[in-house]
Each structure stands twice: as C-alpha cells, then as structure tokens.
Amino acid sequence: MLRERLNRAAYFGLHRLIGSDLAKRYKEFVDLETRSHEWLRDLQGQRLQKLLAYAASQMPFYQKHVTPQAEYVLSDFPILTKNDVRDNFQDLMSPRIRQENLSGKQNLSYSWTRVQTGGSTGTPTTVIHDKNFRDINRAARLYTQYLCGFAFGTPYFKLWGSMREINDAKESLQQRIASTLAGEVLLNAFRMEDPQIDSYVQTINHSPVSHLMAYSDAAYRMAEHIRTAGVKVRPLKSVMACAGTLTDEMRQSISNAFGQARVHNMYGSRDCGAMACECLHGGLHILENKVILETVDQTGAPVSPGETGRILVTLLGNYGFPMIRYEIGDIGSISRRRCHCGIPTAVLDRVEGRTIEFLLSANGGYVSPIYIRHLIGVVHNSGVIRRFQVVQDALDHAVLALEKESGAADAVLDDSIANIRRDLITVFGAGMKLEIKVVDRIPESDSGKFIPCINRIGRSAGL
Ligand SMILES: [Zn+2]
C-alpha cells in the first residue's frame, strides 16, 4: 500500500512537472460520491452554458449554424456527425489552435494533440483534444479504475492493442515511467493466437497482480481459449472490459475464465475518452461532470429514458475543439433508475455496438449485432465455428465468413450453415442474397479489434 501511495504521488508529481493539472481533476471525480444530485446538475449546467456560449461565438462552424442568444440549450446546436468533423476540421478549432495548426507550430511539449479513430468501425475521424481535456480524460480513465476496485496505483494487467501503448521503442522515457508508476503490466492484444494467450496466462499465474483491463473482445477471446483448452488460471478480482460491446454471454465467459472475477463494463472511445463505467454495484455510471449523453431517434428527436436511441456526446471541456452533440456511432439507453451506491450520476441501461456495425433488413430496420452473434456463435454452433464475420454491402447482399474449429466434422458444419442461412434470411428478408464462405482466418481490423458485423452499405458513395 505504501508503494502504491508513493507511486501515485510520483505520478502526479511527474504530471505537475509537464504542466498538467491531473491531481485536481482526479480529485473532482473521486469526490463525486460525496456530492448531491443537485450539486452535479448545477455544475453540469454551468459548464454546458459556458461551453455553448464559447462555441457559438468563437467557432466558425457554430457561427454558421447557431443563432446568437443570451442563453443556449443543447437542442439549439446541430448534431455533429463524423462527416461534419472531417469537412469542417479547421472551423471547429479555437482561434489559437487553428493558427498553431496552420503554421505547424506547436511548441509546448504538453499541449493539444490530434486523436485519430480507426476507420474500420465507421468513418475515419480525427479530432483535437486540448491540454485541459487531456487532463480531464486521463483523470476520467483513472477514475474508471477506481470504480472497478483497482484505484490508481494498484498494479493491473493491460491487454491492449494500441501500437503507441505497446511498442516500447516508440514510447518516450517519460511515458514509460508514467506507465510503470501507474502500475501497468502490458499484454499485447495484437497477438491473440493460442500460444500467445497461453503465455499471457503464464504471466498472470506467476504474478501477484489481480486486475485486468482489456478490450472486451480480447478478454472474451482469451476466456474462450481458457475454457476450450482447459487452461488453469489464477483467479482475478476484476476485469475491466473496454472498447466494444460486452454481451451477457461474454461477461459470463470472462468471469468464469478468471475464477468468478467481477466484470466491469467501461464505455469509452478514443475520440471522447471514458464516458461511463460500472461501479461495484453494477451501475453503468455516466461521468456527468465530464460528458453529457443524449439518446435520439432516427429523426434526431430525443427518446425517453429506458428507450434505445443513437447516442450523442457533448464533452464538457475541450474548448480547443468543442464537440457538441457528436454522433459517436453507438446505440444505448439511459436508465430511468439510479444506482444505489451513492454516486449521484445517471446510469446507462445498456450500450451497444457502433451503429455502423448494425446491419439492415430489407425494409431498413436495424438488425442487432448481438442477435447475429448469438444466432451464429451460440444457437447454431455446436463447437464447429471458431469465429465469424458478416459483411453487408447492400440491403440485399451480405457475405458471412466462418472460421472452422479444428477437428470439426464437415457434416455438422454443413448442418450449422444450413440453419444459419435459414434464420439469417428470415431476419434480413426473403430477398437477401447471402454468401457463406468457410475461410482459414478472418483478419482483425487495423486497430487490432475483431469486428463480427460490418455494415458497408453506402461506403462507396462516401456516406
Ligand atoms: Zn453505482
């Protein structure tokens, strides 16, 4: 415990040296549990008002789209799509960052930064995080660990796939020291073949570390290998599942694989940072001092609490590049109820996929990737399908690739394929031309994440 406290002090000290206000930001998150709902609502209201007024007066994009007013509400602002961000990149920057960006000058070592998101889950997007927002984001990430029961300073395994975070050669000494002080033990999510997973299990078994932070898909893949190969694993206390949909089936499998570990869903993205995380009581708390989430229907009208809609994100900060009502590409529902742990934020009932991953039926309705996953991976899979991917490129055309489990009998696989074809055509509509291919290996996306359902409808038209 003393070592953890010293590491924490050193980590904050290091950040102070580079001009970061991380310690103060972190304290605001941790103190949330001592605050009232009214206090949080007031704080959120003040931050929002200041942000909207600033954006409306300073950003050319918002000067074009928002009528000046004494007081703003969120709905005065347009929904900001990824295409809007791409087409208006300069016009969304603060005057100072625009100037520094144009002149190529960015002298301060700890200043604003460009953040890119992978193109494989939708439109490739670049956004800017200003210096203050980087602090807020870092603090939010540390707070999600706190919610999962491994408060900052407690060592944890990090099964992650970002080259920058994995490749030591590209990391500065400062980053490496910070990572060590934060207690990270890295495992590479880019390498998820069976022998690598076995070596990760060995690392876990020979270490006293009891917490794991991982991509949901990577944790699930590891768990399924542990289960099917009968590998012995030392029990963990918690697994934090990040960056992807966590289904009940995945949660159960991950918990079982690591000795009934608690599994916490963490909702976040590269462009918006951490947005919600499950506490020890299971409430998926929205980090409302940092972010406002709205849920809207296809026309952009708000849906009621408890109903599913497209998620819009407003970052309460990031004045250098205000992101207001940003359509992140996920679907979810904000709960009617509150968590009884005492943290006064709203909670999400659920959050699902990227909207781009949702496939479409012949009449344009959403076909849930969770449903597809269940249908192919569970219902019609008696141990013969290792991995699958559905790529839909038109309302009436899709390709399903299947990786066959080693040793699976062809006759059993043929039966599965016939049943999958029948059920998928029922879901998509009778006009669906479904090609089913058995392949040796389905590749991961560029970011290292595996995506089971890909919607390519309209991509060639630049949508
Ligand atoms: Zn809670």
Write up this protein.
This protein has helices at 2-17, 22-30, 37-58, 60-65, 82-87, 95-103, 131-147, 163-166, 173-181, 194-205, 216-229, 248-257, 369-379, 410-428; strands spanning 113-117, 125-129, 156-160, 184-188, 211-215, 238-242, 262-269, 273-278, 284-286, 291-296, 309-315, 326-334, 347-354, 359-360, 366-367, 385-394, 397-404, 433-439, 453-455. It is of the alpha/beta class and 463 residues long. The protein has 2 domains: 2-289 and 336-353, 3-Layer(aba) Sandwich (Rossmann fold), CATH 3.40.50; 358-461, 2-Layer Sandwich (GMP Synthetase, Chain A, domain 3), CATH 3.30.300. It has an 11-stranded mixed beta sheet with strand order 4-3-5-6-7-8-9-13-12-11-10. Strands 18-17-16-19 form a 4-stranded mixed beta sheet, covered by helices on one side. It has a two-stranded antiparallel ribbon with strand order 1-2. A hairpin with a 5-residue loop joins strand 14 (359-360) and strand 15. Helix 1 packs antiparallel against helix 9 (173-181), helix 2 crosses helix 7 (131-147) and helix 11 packs across helix 12 (248-257). The longest helix has 22 residues, at 37-58. The protein is globular and about 70 Å long. 39% of the residues are buried.
